[in-house]
């Protein structure tokens, strides 16, 4: 079975969607599926390489605009790859207008699976023009996949023309092995704890973009005695640093920058609480919540009413507070940092919950779906 999977874009700051595409590609290839992940590069240099068991092809791009890679070469590359050796199935991950354009160019008789990661939230004016075409694409797909039922229930953009029989819930999965501590990461964990100076340590990470809500988390910090480690980079990094300085919190916030994957375990194990303060439903699942839970840490997220709240169950694995409310967030963090026993209970229950979200289960479910679609052709 040959599958062409569109992965939106590729760079060192890739987010949850891109991580999922990578993990799915690895999982499928590990089960004998011939996978090609086609993504937009972060610059004008293209590449074609083997990463582990799957093939990664990067099409040159002129950067990003409106959350989409500017890569006119990508749709043409998809067509060239199919002509080189035909694929049995195309797998798109939306929102991504670029792979949508590629799908229009590709033969219509090849099955299409669409993974719906989130609605388009910010580009409302462009959405008015794009939505009719998006609806046609989704209605014509052979299968529509979402990580939780809440993705389907909360979406205002999935058209009614998609029958229940073509809607499939397949939870995301993670490889938790890299989150195990070793001698080097234990030393880094201890260094981070020392940096906190005896304060409770709150960890948050992600691209520094508007919907992550890191500005709200920084405001919430005033209501606690906590030390915040904020991982990642992005266009709002400078403004967040300025906010911290203006609030007089520079001694209580550490901007770590991009965290190498091999160091992540140290950060999760160092913290007392992990926080996902997102303010828009663009955050539709939150893979980082699973990583925190796998390290036995309670999670505080926001009440987005989507997959985020399916992963982190309020009162069971952590808490969910009102969106964009620094007071509620601050009080919740302060409560957890005061109650170590509660943190341990929630952390243990979170660790148990991660068993529902494995790469092996995610991979097996996708292969089963692919085989069902191909058997009817």
TrEMBL record:
Q: Which InterPro entries match?
A: Glyco_trans_1 (IPR001296), Glyco_trans_4-like_N (IPR028098), Glycosyltransferase_grp1 (IPR050194)
Give the keywords, sorted.
Transferase
Q: This protein's superkingdom?
A: Bacteria
Q: Which GO terms describe its molecular function?
A: glycosyltransferase activity
The residue ranges of the Glycosyltransferase subfamily 4-like N-terminal domain are 15-175
Q: Which residues cross the membrane?
A: none
Q: Which intervals hold domain Glycosyl transferase family? A: 198-350
Task: Write down a Pfam family by its short name.
Answer: Glycos_transf_1
Please give the PANTHER family that the UniProt record associates with this protein. Answer: SULFOQUINOVOSYL TRANSFERASE SQD2
Write down what this protein is called: Glycosyl transferase group 1
Q: What is the lineage of its organism?
A: Bacteria, Pseudomonadati, Pseudomonadota, Betaproteobacteria, Burkholderiales
